[in-house]
Amino acid sequence: MISISLCMIVKDEEAVISRCLDSVKEIVDEINIVDTGSTDQTKNIVARYTDRIFDFEWIDDFAAARNFSFQQATSDYILWLDADDVFTKKDQELLVDLKRTLDLNIDAVSMKYHLAFDEANNVTSSLRRYRLVKREKGFKWIGAVHEYLEVYGNLHHSEAAVSHMPLSHDADRNLRIYENMVSAGKDFSPRDLFYYANELCDHGKIEKAIEYYLRFLQTKQGWVEDNIRACNKLADCYHSLGLKEKELSWVLHTLVYGPPRAETCCRLGYSFFEKNDFQSAVYWYEKAIENKGSESLAFQNRACATWLPHLQLAVCYDKLGQHQLAYQHNESAFQYRPHDSRMLANQKYFENILNMQAGSGGEDHGNQ
User: Fold this and answer.
1) Residue 146 maps to a domain
2) Hey, which end of the chain has fewer CB within 10 Å, N or C?
3) What is the CATH number for 337?
4) Does the pTM exceed 0.85?
């Protein structure tokens, strides 16, 4: 069985740190907490779990802090978490099993990272991140903000997941760091350009976000999944500016980087839906269901591969007069969101139509 050192960087996390540590304290062999300047009760709370608490002067560089935290580890493998991350009971069991069975030849293990949930606790967005890495490999973090762990060698994808459950966060922190980098004249990597554009977009600075997404794509050095996300973000930006032709052109531009992802298919479906071309919309929503994709490191908008295309197909087939198909797709959407008022209303609507057709002996041929 491998041994695991948990390594975390924290600051003012008194509201969530216990929840995180409680979810993993019985599994890891060592807990290392690097505090970057807490002024609340974080360090006192952490002291209940470990005496391995280290101070690190914050220098607007997440990679530097995380690399320092990794230097404190003494176990075979290093597990990293943020204070507002947790392992659910199911994922604790998967982590225990992973610890028991992992081959020591494995250099790094990815885990699912659940980023958002709907009201029924279904995962709505997720990606994979390398969470567990062999200490002796000396893997390093790169990037002052939106940092990433550079790994290589013998890699393994685990079924265990980490759930991100923030109570609050400093929404302006990352933007401040990037703007300080701009003011200091620091060079931006392609990754920095992309994530700075995301921060600008999230803060409503649309024109400047467009500028940086374009600069990112012009480098031709971005990861293909980030290229696709940049195109979708540009589509969002132009949508917010009311420029529908440019919006559609950037949705189509995602196809430069590979086969259409589920999100691209949904976007194309909606473009035809808005034009009342329901048959073409059906084609693309069906493709969204087909192109669910694999469990990769890429960001996944799960709605576009699960309930959303089914809900839209229900509407499209209703418009086309094919009510049995519409009902079936609404039922498929309903499986993902059993309390969604739209799907409940649709269910009653379609059942009434189908019952009337059955009573009159009519057949649901749709538009021929």
Assistant:
1) yes
2) C
3) 1.25.40
4) no
